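Interim report to the steering committee. The following record documents the input for Digeranylgeranylglycerophospholipid reductase (410 residues).
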Amino acid sequence: MTDNYDVIIAGAGPAGGQAARDLAARGYDVCVLETESEDEFPSRSNKSTAGTFPSTMASFNIPDEVVMKFTDDVVLESPNNHYHRHQPGAVLEFADFKNWLVDEAEADGAEYRFDARVSKPVMEGGEIVGVRYNGDEEVYADIVIDATGPSAPLAKALDVCDLRREKQAIGIEYEFEGMDLAPDGYGDLTDAMMLRLDHDIAPGGYSWIFHTGGDTAKVGVCYIQNEGHRHNAKSGYTIDDYLQYWTESDPRFANAERIAGKQHRGSAHIQLPGRMSTDSFMAIGDTVPTVDPLWGEGIDKCMRSGRVAAATADRALINSDRDTSASELAVYDQLWNERVAPKVKNRLFMTEMLYRASNERYDKLLEDLHRLPDEQLDAANGGSPLAMFRMLKFEDLSILASTARDWFSN
């Protein structure tokens, strides 16, 4: 075991795992530091809904063996309406998926150190040269990558990513069996991934049901500490209370039971990212503030950020002079905005407006979706201002004004 590497990656999630996989395949000496023990991995970090789409499966050669259920459709729900659209997807077994990433990277020579809690960077001459973990242990590398998610100990110490963390997203998910996926008055969720906009269940956020086969499903709630949450939250309710309220009031759960040991919790932050790199350092995955959890498909964005970080590191290390300066690694920031989250400002603005809308407006939105061409919804989701404008109604002007006021004041 050496203490000097080409690249050190803190965190073995989708972003860190993909960066390690790509760099090891290119022949670099890579060390991944992961907080969890090898025997338990990834029990505490098994936090994702793990829904994804064929483009991600194909782009990263994700094997069918880590898929719990291939789905045919996406369903959007509001309190009194639903919109059904054919859009193939896949619900991953997240633990198997993360272990597959580990196996892929290790097969190409990456070293994983489990039980390795990263605490801070090792600095020389004002630049990062390594990582301290487990108290006083240190490892060194030409490039260090922070993929630790919201904790972000390295990015915080280096003042990267503008980590104000003003709008925290908090989520909880259980896996259920005994679900009724198509009761009267609801859309058929068989072979589907469903997202629900309903402030009664998730004020300032969303809830979901992802079919995982038979009568089982992943079920969760996420709210964001935003204006929508402040206006609609139930006094004293925690995220657990909202999920319990939903399962006790929705007929789809009348005979459902939680599957023991299948509970996932997580958090992220919703804001525009600042600078994501500096000398010898890049921040990837959820260490960079999340863009838009409703439409953004987190696994894909994390893996894409890991991939462009690996490409940037390869560009910096491939020559003999190994230029890892801030100006050289700024290529990562450019690639992130081009390939990971294009039109990030437009999409985030749209998402903030969406969470401020009322339940009645959500019902109208889903009515509109039934008559709008799919291309317009795709364009709005992709950040097209014109497509977004065409979906607005007169009553949305107040939401537009309040969102713009907060946007520019921040």
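The mean pLDDT is 92. The committee is asked to note this result when reviewing the revised timeline.
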